[in-house]
Amino acid sequence: MILPLPPSGTEPPPQSQQTDVVRLAAGLVIATIIVAALYFGQVVLIPLAVAFLISFVLGPLVHWLVRHGLSRLLAVALAMGLVLAVLGGLGTLVAVQVQSLSAQLPTYQSTIRAKIKDLGAQMEGPGILEGALQTVDTVQKEVAEVVGEGEENDVPPQRVRVIPEPVSPFKTAMLWLSPLLSPIATAGIVLVFVVLILLDQGDLRDRLLRILGGNIYRSTDALEEASKRISKYLLMQLVVNVTYALPMALGLWLIGVPGFILWGTLAAVMRFIPYVGPILSAVFPLSLAFAVDPGWNMVLMTAALILVLELVSNNIIEPLLYGTSTGLSVLSLIAAATFWTAIWGPIGLVLSTPLTVCLLVVGRYIPQLSILETLLGSSPALSRQTRIYQRLIANDPDDAIDIAEDVIEEESVTEFYNDEGMEVLRQASIDYINNARAEHRLRIANGMDELLEEIRDAHPATLPEGAAPRVACIAGKWEIDRQACEMLAHSLQLDGVPAAVRAAGTATSRYVAGLELEGVQVVLLSFFSREPDAGARNLTRRIRARWPRAKVVLGLWGVASDELDDRRREALGADAVVASIKEAVGRISLLVRDAEGASVEVVQDPQAAAVRNETLKGVRLENPELREDLDDYAIRAADVFDVRTAVIVAIEGENELVIGASHDLPGARTSDGRDLIVLPQDSPIAAQVLSDAKPVAVADIERDPVLSENAILHRWSARALAAAPVRKADGVVLGALCLIHDQVRELDDEELQLLETLAAEVAERLTGEDAAPVSEPEVPAPSASVGQQVPD
Hints:
Strand order of the largest sheet: 8-7-6-11-10-9
Region (Disordered): 766-792
Pfam families: AI-2E_transport, GAF
Structural class: alpha/beta
Membrane topology: Multi-pass membrane protein
Largest sheet: 6 strands, antiparallel
Radius of gyration: 37 Å
Keywords: Cell membrane, Kinase, Membrane, Transferase, Transmembrane, Transmembrane helix, Transport
Number of strands: 11
Strand content: 5-15%
Shape: globular
Organism: Paracoccus salipaludis
CATH architecture of the largest domain: 3-Layer(aba) Sandwich
CATH superfamily of the largest domain: Cobalamin-binding domain
Number of domains: 4
């Protein structure tokens, strides 16, 4: 159905445009001032930056010593003494190696001359350009003869010799020492800065918080993340360099290259320099192998050793130790290396990655500087659904298909339809009226059809041959309504429910009569309209009149989920109203099972159930002290997450018992003297975490097909639920720590990890043993091979 075109969009007011121009100009001026300050203030800023980075490495050691009873002054002294001792030992070894190598170098001169002579002999002989070079030489001689004709040069040129004045020994010593004074002075300044930073770490943190200002929570998180990232980056970089240098030195010793300790140490130091460091560190041992061995075996073995170590370090050691990404893209790393090298020289190249990480963290936590995260970050600037939508607008469905396949490989087809596919259609429905032209609408329609067909072909459903459709998905009005039906039908088929798509049409008696819904148990009506009630009510009434036994589910994709309550469902005459693909699959599957007389049961692992029962038998749940401690844990969880209720549920046999709560709750009590709330067997809560023993979060219980029917949650006025497993060290789930709120509430990955940490403390209190380790939240993959592997 074609809708009338809307009026063209309005331009922003001139005053707004002028404000944007002024802000841009002010930003450019400020950026210029900052760059100039960095360049002209490098004498002070470089030692300060190096000192801060060294303090990031030594900070955890000092903190560990202070926690074990030493004063901060003594802890700093021990840390600095350890560093100086290590540097002094390495310096002594290197000095010995240099002295020994310098004594041996004159003996290699004959080998070098012989190899160069052999190479020159091999390069002699007729070459490709020899004739051209001879021609050029002949022409040059003839020109010189012509130019020189008629010139008289009777008096030969006289050689002039300039005798320098004698230099005093003091000036000679100063000439030798002056190049060393600047590095020594810089090292001394860095050393003083490191000591002062470690001694006054708390005061410096307070001053940085004052400078950042604004939200103290956000500023604290920014400092913690920057410190954590840089400390782990430098520490892991040191470990990687050492694990590279030790095999390097050992391999050179076995090959027979002199000064193997020197070259191993040089490799460990030079690898701190991005990009060029590994190349420079390889030049010296290769050159020495060339000078020592009359043949080529030593050179080839040295080159093979360096190549193997680079491959192992880059592809095994670094991913194993680093694990995740700094969040910096390759382009930003190269640009940052170029920028810092341009203003600070080689030291800037060494400091480029840590300094850029600091800028990324600042951009992440300070809204005014969020452009830094966009420019430097490795995560895509656009969400996946926006990228797919843009590719369709640009008439590039192949790229959209590639993005979709990447998502499906990480998650599943249904997850893709629910999170990305429906969002693309939702955005298309919004832009249909406001922004899209006719060509855009055609591209989106054709591109989505091609995308959905490719996904169906790549991920076919396995259904019994000739199975009659149990579900019919009917498009309400638009083309995107039909595409939503295609996604839902495919998701249902993958879930084992035969489903078919019916063509869209007007809600007339003739159209409804031609739908062929005999034998269909559930009918889903798909609407992306912002105001679908009239059309949905009319079509629902006609379908019920002709097929009264069919269940009708309304997919109101363009309506906010919190507006889909029971009153609206009853007013529309539907059996259920859904707002997402996952919810539709869940509710329709339950309706189909109900129609077939099947039931959904929670399947428990018998062995895990036996271990759980045996463990809980040894816990005296009627103990007042234990009950008080568990209530305290629940109260703390409710306060920390700012929810109305928190409960601790234990799974005992076939029952779930509330063994801790933030306040009194209604419910049936046990009759064995323990006075514990026992949940109805058809209304479990902790069973949500039994399948994979991972935290779960349901932002809106009304949108969950199973929990929306949970009687105890309705009695507790629950609208949102989050649960983390209470697990033993062997992974057996004893129960769950649950958060219950009376409003729609979402929890992110970090909050779920914190909830899991509190659940681990509950497990330790119940069993008296160490709990299972808390799982790390999944980190989004960097975009298209642009993430450097460094600690998160």
